[in-house]
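Attaching the record inline, Q. Sequence:
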Amino acid sequence: MKNVDELCSLLQEIIDEAGGGADEKVDPHTPLLISGLVDSLTIMRIVARVEESNGIPFPETEVVAANFRTPTALWNAIGTVEGAARAEGAVS
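Structure, as predicted:
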């Protein structure tokens, strides 16, 4: 993923697959948890897809509500995880 808009598209796809969201369009500021678009099972799906698309593990310590409040919050968490992985030499 290159930007938060691509993340929004991925989130929209996952939410639609899970049967949620119906008419709601995910944008960078969509409240994911408060709106009920995302539940714990959907969060696990998101983590798996983020790991798959970015090629790095998303640590359990980052799977917290604050990182899933909005796509922007999740994008920032992904950046933190990628930065840590680069520092450890896990990502080029």
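The helical segments are 4-17, 40-54, 71-87. The two ends are 15 Å apart (CA to CA).

More tomorrow.
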